[in-house]
Amino acid sequence: MEMPEVNHCFGMFPPKYGCLLISWLGLATGGTGLAGIIMYGIVQEQIIAHFMNTTKVDEGSKKMALMSIGFTSLMLFIGNGLLFLGVTFSSKSCVKYFVYVTFAMCLIMIMGCIGAPVSCFFLAKTCVMKKISSPAMVIGYLGFTIFIELWLYFMVVGYNFKESL
After folding, report:
1. The pTM is what?
2. At 86, is the pLDDT very low, low, confident or very high (cuts 50, 70, 90)?
3. Across residues 15-30, what is the average pLDDT?
4. Distances, alpha carbon 126 to alpha carbons 44, 71, 130, in Å
5. pLDDT at 122
6. Are 51 and 104 in contact (CB under 8 A)?
């Protein structure tokens, strides 16, 4: 597997400390996302009514939000837990599995982000994308793009740290 060489995370942190910061960020993000699922279950009607401009809770919207947030948070939590263990104990295999889990998470999220609008062609009655306002969709896709690019960069930093062990 060939990846670009990154000598310092964000240009200032050595690979070991950069990976430690990445693992803390990922564990915090994953934990916040998992807690967000619990909060979403408590206030789901208000959230959907605010963002979807409707008062009726759609089961498809609810499942889509819960699955995307939950799966991403779980993958982040597991992958960054492995990275934390790999950095702490200098374990090459833990860091390697962080790279694999992060890459799998990014691929699955990209396929889901492409598949959601494409599914509207085949399942017009259950299309969730047409219920979301255009500004919310644009902001969501921009946030998604930044999120994916950031974690792909972190994956490259983790790979370079693994190679330096």
Report:
1. 0.84
2. very high
3. 95
4. 19, 21, 9
5. 84
6. no
Would 6 be classed as within a structural domain? no
**Domain hosting residue 21, numbered range:** 15-164
Are the C-beta atoms of residues 8 and 40 closer than 8 Å to each other? no
Q: Which residue has the tokens 């947030």?
A: 69
82 assigned to some structural domain: yes
What total of structural domains would you count in the chain?
1
Residue matched to tokens 């670009």: 4
Do the domain assignments include residue 9? no
Residue 9 pLDDT class (50, 70, 90 cuts): very high
Q: Look at the alpha carbons of 66, 67, 68, 71 in this order and tell me if their dihedral is positive or negative.
A: positive
Phi, psi of 13 (to 5 degrees): -100, 135
- Report yes or no on 83 lying in a domain: yes
As a whole number of angstroms, the distance between CA 149 and CA 131 comes to 27
For residues 83 and 75, the answer to whether their CB atoms sit within 8 Å is no
For 163, the 3-state DSSP assignment is helix
Place of tokens 């259950």: 126
The partner residues of 9 in beta bridges, in order of sequence, read 13
Q: List beta partners, residue 13.
A: 9
